Every structure is written in C-alpha cells, then in structure tokens.
Amino acid sequence: MYPCIEINLEKLEDNSRKVNGLLKPLGISVMAVTKGFTAETRIARAILDGGADYIADARIKNLIKLKDLPREKVLLRLPMQSEIHDVVKYCDYSLNSELDTLKLIGKEATSLGIVHKVIIMVDLGDYREGIRYHRVEQFVKEAVEIEGVAIRGFGVNLTCFGGVIPEQTTLQRLVEISETMRVKYDLKIDIVSGGSSSSIYLINEENGIPRGINNLRLGEVILLGKETAFGERFDGLHEDAFILKAQIIELKDKPSVPHGRIGRDAFGNIPHHQDRGIIRRAILALGKQDVDPSGIIPVNPNLSILGASSDHLIVDLSKDKEAYQVGDIISFYVKYGGLLNAMTSPYVEKVYIERDDR
C-alpha cells in the first residue's frame, strides 16, 4: 500500500555502529533518541545493536513502548507535573529545570521506595529549556535537599530552538559548571551531556569536543546520516535509511499559474506561483496530513515539488516528462521533520527492510 516509508534496518544499525565507533574512544556515550520514529521497537533495537548506551525520548508513551529493551531510559522533555507517576515508574533519568517538579518527582519516588536520577539542564544561550548559568548554584543548593531525587548529571540543549551552534567554549562552560557543582555538593555525576546531533561535528574540529563531555543525545545523525549544526553528511553515513514512496494518481499538462483570482488555500495561506508555462504535473496520493512537503526531497533530481493540500502532493515532472505514467511510484528522501511526520501518520505504511543476518 502507498504511501509508504521504507525503513532499512541494516543501514540504521551501520550508522549507529559507525557513530558509536567514533565516540566511544573519546569516552562519550550515546543516548539513542527514538522520537523521530515514534519509538518503533525494531528500529530502536537496530540502533541499540549498533552500540547505543541509553534510550531517550521526549514522550513518556514512547518510553513505555520500549520498556522491555535492555537499556536505561531517559525522558528528554522536561516532565509535565501530570505525568510524574509514569516518569518515576518508567524512566531511569529525566531532564529537569524546575524545583517544583523535582519536589513532586521526589515525593513520588519516595512513595515507591526508589531514588530517581535527574540531569539538570543549563541554558547556555539557545533559550529553550534550562537554568541560566549564573543561577545553577542556587538551584542545585535547593535540589540536593529533595528526598527521592539524585542529581546525576548536567546537560545543555543547543540549536533546536534558537539555532545556536555548539562550540568548544560553550561546552567547556558546561563541563566547568558540572565540576564545580560536583565538588561543592559532593555529587556523583554520571552524565555531562553536550547536546544533540548538532554537537557531533566538533569531533572533526581541531580541538574536538572538550574533555569532560561524556554524552551526546543523538537522533538525526544516526537516522539520516547528517549532523545538524550545518546539515552536512557525516563521515560517510547512510542518508537513505528511510525512503518515502507515493503513487501518481493524475498526470496532466497544465499551466504553472492557476487561472482566476487568488485567495487563501486550504491552510489559510496565500500561494505564490512561478510562471513556467505549461508543465507536466503529477498529483500524488500524499498530502500535508501525511508529511510537510518542505520535509521531503525527490530522489530523482529532475523533479520538483510545487506544493500540497491535505491529501495531494503536486510535483513538476517537466524535466523528465516521459519517464512516468499514472500508477508509477515516486520516491523521496526525508529530512528530520519529514521523517517525524511520516512515521507519526497512520496513513503512511511502514515497510521494513530487514537485516541480512536476522
């Protein structure tokens, strides 16, 4: 059935193995971020077989899906107070920046007779989650008094919201904050997490990732073979472990500019059309309910995406007009956003290419 997304488990395991092979000699562990593929077990298992140390996700439902896999689980999004019970029950670690939430976690953990491990997030300029660096000490001073909670690490998020590129000086500041807090409050620090797939480019820089950073939270570089600071392919990884496929349902020569007064489209936007004359237009059975068209790229470089409605994707075939017929399949590479959409959509079939040795 189409549309579908083909998932090559062997390529995913290979990407994971190569990334882990680069980081382990540097003393850096990997949290495999599973949210990009809705924590599908077969994909997670392939990445873990490649050497990832932890399973990490922003959504507790995903971590519950993977509860039987033999790795410690990390909640990446700051916990909602409404989900504290599940956080304590199903997560070994959670990322935190709010004292009130930590107090609830501690109360729940104490009632269950356990101690919950937390990673304190420090904001070093991207201005998403985290405590501003000059307020970390006061936060830790209060947090260490909370029964049922153990501070076991510090982390930083960069790039995801503000687009701030991770740099050695920024990550070195995290190391220094972590070490200062460790000494002053006699903390056992397991994890100093220096960011996501946007930080991995630093291993190819002159001074590399600063000593003391011992963890990265990695999704896109393993899934799509790209570091995210500059969007470049990373060290020969596979970029095609996921391929989205859709079927042509109409093929017509039509003008490139609609005829008539232009108003708002189905999503409330006013479209702008480039006049290319008469073009060969294919309609594919794939729409914005399945994937954001800006998150996919035709495998055939002669094709270009014109736009989409809820259920239809319009593609210009003019540069390769004789190559396709109604019923043919067009393939697309996916960006991270496109992957997230396609894997989340119940209308996109998931097709697995199994590993040769399984």
N→C terminal distance: 24 Å
CATH topology assignment of the largest domain: TIM Barrel
CATH architecture of the largest domain: Alpha-Beta Barrel
The helix-and-strand class reads alpha/beta
Description:
The protein has 358 residues and is an alpha/beta fold. It folds into 2 domains: 9-224, Alanine racemase (TIM Barrel, Alpha-Beta Barrel); 242-353, Elongation Factor Tu (Ef-tu), domain 3. The chain is built from 9 helices and 17 strands. It has helices at residues 9-23, 41-49, 60-65, 84-90, 99-111, 136-143, 168-185, 220-224, 336-344; strands at 4-8, 29-33, 54-57, 72-75, 93-96, 116-123, 131-132, 149-155, 191-193, 215-218, 242-255, 278-284, 296-298, 304-308, 313-316, 329-334, 349-353. The strands form 2 sheets. Strands 2, 3, 4, 5, 6, 7, 8, 9 and 10 form a 9-stranded parallel β-sheet that branches. Strands 1, 11, 12, 13, 14, 15, 16 and 17 form an 8-stranded mixed β-sheet that branches. Helix 4 (84-90) links the parallel strand 4 (72-75) and strand 5. Helix 1 (9-23) packs parallel to helix 2 and helix 4 (84-90) packs across helix 5. The longest helix has 18 residues, at 168-185. The protein is elongated, with a radius of gyration of 23 Å. 42% of the residues are buried. Residues 7-220 form the Alanine racemase N-terminal domain. GO terms for molecular function: alanine racemase activity; pyridoxal phosphate binding. Keywords: Isomerase, Pyridoxal phosphate.
